[in-house]
Structure formats: structure tokens, C-alpha cells
Write the C-alpha cells for this entry.
Amino acid sequence: MLDPESFLTELYVKVDDFDKILPPPAATPGQQPSLSRSELAPLALFAQWGQFLSERAFYRQTEARTICP
């Protein structure tokens, strides 16, 4: 089993490779997203991983990793 950082890195690489063959997203009015599709998809998949009991638990986990590398 991979640690979460390695899992997310591998998942990001696979999603980014797949995203490169897709057409770019359509322009929409309003603020530009702060994350690309390649960054958002792995986080969404990771959030559905069984170890998180709630969205709040996932947010705490990701916030702790971005603040304290």
C-alpha cells in the first residue's frame, strides 16, 4: 500500500496524462478556477477513499499537508 503522498502523486500523473488528450474546458463567465482539472480530479478521488469519515476530516487532512509539508 502506498502512503497518501505517493498515491496522490501517481494519481495526479495518470490524470494529467489523460487530461492532455481531452479538449480544453469551455470558457465560462466569472472567476477563473484556482485548480486545474488535473489537480481537482485526484483530490476528488482521494476524498472518496474510505479513510475519511466526513468531508471535514478530508479537509483537515489536506489542510494539514499544505500548511505543514
Observations:
- The longest helix spans residues 4-19.
- The chain has a mean pLDDT of 81.
- The radius of gyration is 14 Å.
- Helices lie at 4-19, 37-47, 55-67.
